[in-house]
Amino acid sequence: xxxxxxxxxxxxxxxxxxxxxxxxELPLWNPYxxxxxxxxxxxxxxxxxxxxxxxxxxxxxxxLHFWYLEMFTIAHIFLAGITMFYCAKHFGLSRPAALFxxxxxxxxxxxxxxxIHIVMIAQLAWxxxxxxxxxxxxxxxxxxxxxxxxFILSLVVFGGHPQITFYFFFFLFVFxxxxxxxxxxxxxxxxxxxxxSISIFAAGVILVAIGLAxxxxxxxxxxxxxxxxxxxxxxxxxxxxxxxxQLLTLLIPKFFGTANQLLGDNPIRYWGPQSHWSYWETCIYxxxxxxxxxxxxxxxxxxxxxxxxxxxxxxxxxxxxxxENFFIHKFFFNVVPGFDKFRSLGRxxxxxxxxxxxxxxxxLQQLLSSSKQEKFFLNILFSIGGITSLVLIGTxxxxxxxxxxxxxxxxxxxxxxxxxxxxxxxxxxQSQSLVAFGIVLLSIGALFFLWKKNISANVALxxxxxxxxxxxxxxxxxxxxxxxxxQAYFSERKQLIQILKDESKEELFRINARVRGTLLxxxxxxxxxxxxxxxxxxxxxxxxxxxxxxxxxxxxxxxNTKYRLxxxxxxxxxxxxxxxxxxxxxxxxxxxFFVYNAKVFSTAQEESLYLSNPAFNPREVVTLEESPGTTFxxxxxxx
Length: 639
What we know:
54% of the residues lie in helices and 7% in strands. The chain has helices spanning 5-22, 66-90, 95-106, 109-113, 118-140, 143-159, 162-186, 192-226, 234-237, 278-281, 288-296, 305-321, 327-335, 349-368, 374-396, 401-410, 418-452, 457-476, 486-489, 494-504, 525-529, 552-558, 604-611; strands at residues 29-30, 37-38, 59-60, 63-64, 510-512, 514-515, 518-519, 561-572, 575-584, 598-600, 622-624. The strands form 5 sheets. Strands 5-8-9 form a 3-stranded mixed sheet. Strands 1-2 form a two-stranded antiparallel ribbon. Strands 3-4 form a two-stranded antiparallel sheet. α2 packs antiparallel against α3. The protein is globular, with a radius of gyration of 28 Å.
């Protein structure tokens, strides 16, 4: 079973979307989360992502089985391989080299750790096709490629991850500038007409994409300004950033442990910088063969101009992901509009992954030909092998104990006693360094055979593909094999939910199923069972969920919250145990009722002061932020 955000966010989202569409309803509004909020406007809902319509026929009986969404995600991995294959061929790679690039891309560390994020996987699947068509559009002045690229780019937008989408547009802008530079550089006189043509077709792609995606972008921008993500400070933006020491994970991916579906039972828990989820946000592993071949592709930088561009963009992506550990992010955060809206800077590893995967195919093609860069290739092999050997020896003889202890004190497991944490961390480092050393030797051996051409090219290529697959399999085979069945997870309170649903047929009411960190039901359970919860889980949660009132209890009463979570502590057999249940709040207000007194406030501050006054009575007066254009009789409310 897929785990984490797949269960908590994306399955409920897709379940609500597909079941609504299957019943003939366009889900613009979601009344079952946070007391009600926009749904289609939340870009991660995927309502207008056209491939998601394939799921609609499988939504039966008011439910989409989670298995279909898992298969939908996996299908996008294969799609990523297909689009990368043709993108690599477009840049001049042979079929074997393009096949290797496709494998490197579709089974990269980024793809593996983000399988729980369908929105990222959907965008990963289409991106190579966008790059290929964009390049064709501006080079061939092709109207067809322009329209197709704009359409595919709109699918990327509908795919649902705003941060990656924004970075996509930035990438295309930089790619466009690079192509302009190459055009000017390769012409003796200033190529005015050529520059104008490239600019028009590049702009055409963006205009087509934004025009088609406007139905999503406009409501999303409006929602974003009202959400908890409307503004983040610089410190918040640094969450999920990469650290210099994590570059070591290019060779030893689990040096800092892992955060996977095993959760608390994980024998090699993530102990690196920040918290456990930083593991998947900062994953930069692409495989040893891919890394070596990508480095070897630099020997072709003078012959193939795109090699230098993608190599530089891969480096730029890593440096940007470093956040406060390098100057690039701070400059963009303070100067360039849009870059101050996002955190989890490690997601820049997407572009590193794409660039390195493409370049690895270039390196393989060069290796398959009569290479004249033998010394350069051997230097790369010796460097990779030497660095891994030094790390392995250093960990075995406890050379890095001081550094490791300092990392433990500030990392993801700093709450664990150093006496307990250090032996656990050392065991992880020593075992994973040994595993990585074995993978490095295997990879170097496969590439050496390919270089020496002691075996046939087909056998060597098969060996290389097998080694790359084996490498990423060892890295990620346990990452997403979750133990929690989503169907069973959302059925834990089946009897209680059925009682609430039956009662809601007679009366509309909301439910508060959370007290601080204690949950009676999943936060997005409302979208699964269509019950009105005050809880929810989405990055674009509204700033104003509860109305201002003298107390939080009154806030819930105003929002028709009939049932509140109650936690009792009792002593059973000498031990204190907690019991959870729902209790009726006798003071809750109906979903709708009449009042005949209204007060209009010109500023939000005045309104807030009035609402927080203990004398405020929501049963007799309503506050408005603008005049309704009519008057009310001053008499007692009629319920």
